[in-house]
Amino acid sequence: MNPTTETRKNGVHDDDNVHMDPVQMLRDTFHSTLKNLDDWWDTMSKLERTARKHPVTFIAAGSAVVLAVAGGITVGILENKRRNTFNYKFMKGLKWAKNIV
Question: What is the pTM of this model?
Fold first, then answer.
């Protein structure tokens, strides 16, 4: 174990870390970042395996997200239409889309 990262028996870091070399601090930060990325990658791979085992759950969650986004866009369009803040071209396209549906 690196002497700059040793801990006491109670889990508290030694006071020697306060006077660490900047290069060593950068190296330790880089090392911890890589470790966190590795842990994140393991979590993502578990998520992929879970999605393959339970596809209905992920389809339902994806549908809920799509519906929430579509609902937000619809509310925004209706609110702007009520306030008449759209330009002429947009309103013309909205009427055209309304006639198609």
Answer: 0.42
